[in-house]
Amino acid sequence: MAATVIDRTIKVYPKQRQFLQSNALLRAFVGGIGSGKSWIGSLDMIHRSKPGRLYLVTAPTYPMLSDATFRSLTGLAQELGVVEPGDAKQSPPPSVKLRNGAEVLFRSTDNPEMLRGPNLSGVWMDEASLSKREAFDILVGRLREGGEMGWLCATFTPKGKAHWTYKVFGAGGPDVELIHAQSDENPFLPPEFVENVRKRYTAQQIRQELGGAFIEGGGNHYFPHLWPRYTDMGDAYRIGDGSGRWRHYRKADCSRLLALDWAMGKPKRATGAAELKGDHTAFVVADLTEDGALLLLYCLNERIPMGSNAPRLAEVCRRWEPVVVAGDDDNLSETMLLETRRYRDIPTVKPMAIGGRNKLIRSQAAIVRAERGMVYLPQEDRREEYWVEELSNQLASFTGADGEDDDIADAIAIIGRLADEFVPGEDPAGELDPVLGADGYNSEQW
């Protein structure tokens, strides 16, 4: 039976055409909001699909995948007549079978390890700057279907020059091409769109969100790549004032704080199953100086089974010896608080009242302290580089919207509020527990 040839004329603007015509193995279409990123990503996937081959499309979360990316590709495929009715399945796991026999899978990058498995001919990462570098690294290793090297493309709004997307696509390299488009280059936008948005943005937001530019400290609320640095001198911290002079803070004069954002378990979106699984837990440790500077010492962001949260916290406390631990009150059930008291290494755990406030409002204390130059990161070395980069990338991407990968950002918000409220020498929780007393229980007793 002869193949059906479908002839359609699609209007694209010059930057989109350049992206479609690129032969680089790693390609990125980076632009401001409204520059047509998801649309051109959809067209590129359809255009490059080969009969019988397997492809993958990703988005940072399943709501984003379902509400935007999946709709964009399937809508365009239907408009072009390259998908049969019933061959676009949105129920988990989503997939689309194109008329040429190519199959396109849709997955979230919120758990990168789940991306392992199939060999692929091509990958499109939509909103890649909101996904972890780990997802990209795993996906590149899947590009080997049929004994051929596959391709990967990414569409996103930039999040600064220290973000992994800049290091992969923006800094250049062999078989890498980046196409940059500003919002006002898209002739298909409503004529008043860009100007209306511009009126509501700061100069920095205009350059990033409309200009699509990689900027130093790029992000929405935090600019961690511009934060000052400290040097650990053993019994003190050394901080430069920018004029060649140094200030020293004795560690003995600092108060050590620990903020936690516990994974409380969520339904598995990918399967529709009702059982709970461990999400990512974040711990942030900082020293608070007498004049209110926060020196970030350590960050842990990992997937921890729910039953292991307290033992893992005890390990971190054993290493860093905080004087107080704090978490949002909606994240600290009575059961969890009692569990922490089983361990001598865990000090008083202070529930921080959120009072129905959204994430962005709860983050204001940390944001303001950082803007005043009062939040410090360590001078990076091989031991510190991983967590500093992970923390910086997540904070630079933080918008305050629900569904983001923001465990670290939540912990930073908590430690910012705790620093505002903390009084050295004061028992953060008030009276001692009437049942367990001051010492609690250690793990050997249970």
Q: What do these coordinates show?
A:
α2 (about 35-50) crosses α3. The protein has 2 domains: about 15-210, 3-Layer(aba) Sandwich (Rossmann fold), CATH 3.40.50.300; about 225-445, Nucleotidyltransferase, domain 5 (2-Layer Sandwich). The protein is built from 13 helices and 19 strands. The chain has about 450 residues and is of the alpha/beta class. The chain has a 9-stranded mixed β-sheet, sandwiched between helices.
Short structural description:
With 446 residues, the protein is α/β, with parallel strands linked by helices. It has helices spanning 14-21, 37-48, 62-80, 133-140, 164-170, 193-198, 203-210, 309-320, 334-340, 359-362, 364-371, 385-397, 407-421; strands at 26-31, 54-59, 83-89, 95-98, 103-108, 122-126, 151-156, 176-181, 229-232, 236-240, 246-250, 255-261, 266-267, 276-277, 280-288, 294-303, 324-328, 349-352, 375-378.
